[in-house]
Design brief:
The protein is mainly beta and about 150 residues long. The chain contains one helix and eight strands, in the order αββββββββ. It has one helix at about 1-15; strands spanning about 25-35, 40-55, 55-65, 70-80, 85-95, 100-110, 115-125, 130-145. Strand 4 (about 70-80) and strand 5 (about 85-95) form a beta hairpin. The radius of gyration is 20 Å and the shape is globular.
């Protein structure tokens, strides 16, 4: 019985030692961005917990706030040359109104984490059969989280 427990413990230790470094991550904190349209008017706000993965990749898990309505959002970022490329995906079902999904791409300055963005949104309204798409663009600024 003791031999079996020792064997199981050794196998567990060996398995943990074999976990590749690519699974390692470091929590970098909470980051928030305010999104503005081309005219400089505020649109929505993102709030993410940001994790740095081995190899210089970043994973983002959090939310998007559209006019005080929170929806789930997630994304990833990578440093490419002298910029940070950020991709965010979010979607939600607003009961009785619509279902929407959005893919958001931004190019950020690595020292300020501000930049420009483009997004494509697909919307299917309740009671309608058609799905329509919207393209938007503007600027994005790192802001204090609330």
């Amino acid at each position: 019985m003791i031999t079996k427990r020792i064997f199981v413990a050794l196998v567990g230790i060996i398995m943990l030692a074999c976990v590749p470094n690519s699974f390692a991550e470091t929590f970098r904190g909470e980051f928030c961005w305010q999104v503005f349209n081309q005219g400089g008017e505020p649109y929505w706000r993102y709030k993410f917990g940001v994790y740095q993965k081995e190899g210089g990749y970043f994973a983002l898990f959090g939310s998007v706030d559209y006019e005080n309505t929170l929806s789930a959002a997630h994304g990833n970022a990578v440093v490419v040359g002298d910029s940070v490329k950020l991709t965010i995906v979010s979607s939600d079902r607003e009961e009785g109104l619509e279902f929407w999904t959005e893919t958001f791409a931004a190019q950020l300055n690595p020292s300020t984490l501000n930049g420009t963005w483009n997004a494509i949104e697909l919307v299917k309204r309740d009671g309608e059969n058609d799905v329509f798409g919207i393209h938007q663009q503007g600027t994005i600024n790192l802001v204090a989280c609330q």
